[in-house]
Design brief:
The complex is a heterodimer.
Chain A: H1 2-41, E1 44-49, E2 52-58, H2 62-69, H3 72-103, H4 112-124, H5 127-137, H6 143-150, H7 164-192, H8 196-204, H9 209-237, H10 241-246, H11 260-269, H12 273-307
Helix pairs in contact in A: 1-12, 2-12, 3-7, 3-9, 4-7, 5-7, 7-9, 9-12, 11-12
Chain B: H1 2-11, H2 13-42, H3 46-50, H4 61-69, H5 75-106, H6 112-122, H7 131-140, H8 148-151, H9 158-171, H10 174-182, H11 187-198, H12 200-216, H13 219-224, H14 233-242, H15 250-285
Helix pairs in contact in B: 2-15, 4-15, 5-9, 5-12, 5-14, 9-12, 10-11, 12-15, 14-15
Chain lengths: 308, 286
């Protein structure tokens, strides 16, 4: 009987491999092989110059040297990170507060479902349509300028899309509006997953809501915070639709809203596979470094809190 | 000193409730005002729009809509293509991601740890990074200008997998699967009939996420789809932006934007009940 059971377990466990097949095959074909092709292409000179095709010729690391020396890469990395931080910092603060209020039983907030539904709504809006909407609303002849001028706040219409910080702010604001609801729902799910007896015990011990938030909610929420932060960072590096549509691909004013993926898109569109490949590989490395940094940062936070 | 301040802050429940509602109302306005303006402007004619903003809608919605339909933008086919891609992606992605998570969660096999670590590692890789190779592959297997390369790859979604795995750890006890086996269920049946129902809240959340990211997706489709009847809505919007919009009838521009936004809102209102209800129900139980 026992022997039969063991055999059955081994037989069951074979199903682990079977259930992994769809993922493995799809990943291999559509992600892993393309990744290697991308790396391979980064070592070749391969582009179109007018009607003539140059390459592919093996050039070693020349594409990387070109990419790193022309200063564009640094600028676009800076743009991307500035706009991500401008959107993410308010997002995580607002989301933490909202999720905490929603999950706090002593507050007994009414209309929670309505607020959650509203907050998640902008996330469903197609980024390019939302960006197009902002472009029309904030244009020189758009309704926002119309309202600002007619109420006397501005003397003449302000050209949002031709000033560096107003354009960046618009992009960051759109990212904030689109993603804070998503973050709130994720954080709320995490907060609701916390055993309520912990809160009750803390209350019996005389802890107030501020203490409960810092000593119970936040530490227990760390895995989900980590998840939110990593996915947001990955998303931030992929920032494309909003600035692409808002500036019609130009990244103007003076390339201050040109993101890394917009740069990559330019190379892919013009079929400059050598430079596109090198940029892809560098993006891959940047993503990896930033992910490791966040993991470490969160790890240190844990240690210092334990010491404190 | 410090603790007394905290104490008073903790005590004043009415003030906290007031602040919460105030912030929530501001946030609600920030979320909705854009769509309100969009709705108002979609109902107004070009000449009315040029005269400035009003708070009340006008009567030109259907005229604007009619003009768009008879215009040059492939709006209807764009809509169809977007629906096809997003729905099939959401179904395939959630089903197979749950299956992958199930494999790692339930079974004990040699490569289990390696598989889990591998998926966590590749979770960080943005799809854009492999877009170059992906484009070349799509060209080589003759799927250029087709919707298929936008759908099939969603089967392997590391982030969805990660979420499902996390969710399983808290809601899918192995004893339940053990019990199903004793009752004589085979493994595939157990996955479909025991695991999937329990995973419904997570599947609902992830189905929305996948649907949205697929619906929003502009980068890859813009590189793959070329002919007008294959284009998805984001590409149509980009076309609208690239044209000199001041020469356009602004009423048409607003209606086009509204058209790409409205269907998603309907889908969302149907599913949000399920999602928000599922999330809170789980919490109340605990």
């Amino acid at each position: 009987m026992k022997n039969k059971g063991n055999q059955a377990v081994i037989k069951y466990n074979r199903w682990g491999y079977i259930f992994l097949i769809p993922f493995t095959v799809t990943y291999l074909v559509f992600q892993l092989i393309p990744l290697f092709t991308t790396v391979y292409n980064s070592f070749f000179e391969n582009y179109r110059d007018g009607l003539t095709q140059v390459g592919p010729n093996f050039v070693g690391l020349e594409n990387y040297a070109k990419l790193l020396s022309n200063g564009e890469l640094l600028m676009y990395t800076k743009n991307t990170m500035i706009m991500w931080v401008m959107g993410f910092v308010p997002q995580i603060i607002v989301s933490l507060f909202l999720a905490y209020w929603f999950s706090d039983p002593s507050l007994r907030l009414k209309g929670q479902r309505f607020f959650k539904t509203v907050m998640y709504l902008p996330n469903l809006i197609m980024a390019s349509a939302f960006s197009m909407l902002f472009f029309t609303l904030f244009s020189n002849v758009g309704p926002i300028n119309g309202i600002l001028v007619s109420t006397g706040i501005l003397k003449e219409s302000y050209d949002f899309m031709s000033h560096v910080w107003s354009t960046r702010s618009l992009i960051a604001f759109m990212n904030f509006i689109m993603w804070f609801g998503n973050t709130t729902i994720l954080l709320l799910a995490g907060m609701l997953g916390i055993d309520t007896s912990l809160y009750e015990a803390a209350e019996v011990d005389g802890a107030n809501s501020t203490q409960i938030f810092w000593k119970i909610t936040l530490p227990l929420l760390k895995p989900i915070l980590l998840y939110v932060m990593i996915t947001s960072l990955i998303g931030g590096l992929q920032m494309f639709d909003v600035p692409q549509i808002l500036t019609s691909g130009s990244g103007d004013p003076v390339h201050s809203t040109m993101t890394l993926i917009m740069y990559l898109n330019k190379h892919l569109y013009s079929k400059n596979y050598g430079m596109g490949g090198a940029l892809s590989v560098l993006l891959f490395i940047i993503t990896a470094i930033l992910s490791v940094m966040i993991f470490k940062f969160m790890g240190y936070g844990e240690r210092s809190r334990k010491n404190g | 000193m410090d603790s007394s301040i905290k104490q008073s802050k903790g005590m004043n429940i009415h003030a906290r409730r007031f602040i919460s509602y105030l912030v929530l109302i501001i946030i609600t306005i920030l979320c909705l005002v854009w769509f309100y303006i969009l709705f108002i402007n979609a109902t107004r004619s070009n000449s009315q729009l040029k005269r400035g903003f009003t708070l009340l809608p006008s009567t030109f919605l259907f005229e604007n809509w009619n003009n768009v339909l008879h215009g040059t933008l492939p709006i209807m086919s764009g809509m169809m293509n977007s629906v096809i891609v997003s729905v099939t992606s959401a179904v395939l992605c959630t089903y197979f991601s749950t299956m992958t998570a199930y494999a790692v969660h339930v079974y004990d096999f040699k490569l289990k740890k390696a598989a889990y670590t591998f998926i966590l590692m590749v979770m960080m890789i943005p799809t854009q990074v492999t877009a170059l190779g992906f484009l070349k592959l799509v060209g080589r297997i003759g799927l250029d200008d087709s919707l298929i390369p936008l759908i099939i790859p969603t089967i392997a979604a590391p982030i969805t997998f990660f979420y499902m795995k996390q969710y399983m750890e808290s809601t899918l006890p192995l004893s339940l699967i053990e019990a199903a086996r004793i009752d004589g269920a085979n493994e595939f049946y157990t996955f479909n009939k025991v695991c999937m129902p329990l995973m419904k809240p997570a599947i609902a959340v992830q189905a929305i996420f996948t649907f949205v990211s697929s619906w929003n997706n502009y980068f890859t489709p813009a590189l793959i789809l070329h002919s007008d009847n294959k284009k998805t809505l984001p590409i149509v919007i980009a076309q609208l932006r690239a044209a000199d919009f001041l020469k356009f009838d602004m009423g048409q521009v607003y209606v086009t934007i509204a058209f790409s936004i409205f269907p998603v809102i309907v889908v969302y209102l149907i599913l949000s009940k399920y999602i928000v209800g599922g999330v809170t129900a789980g919490g109340v139980k605990g």
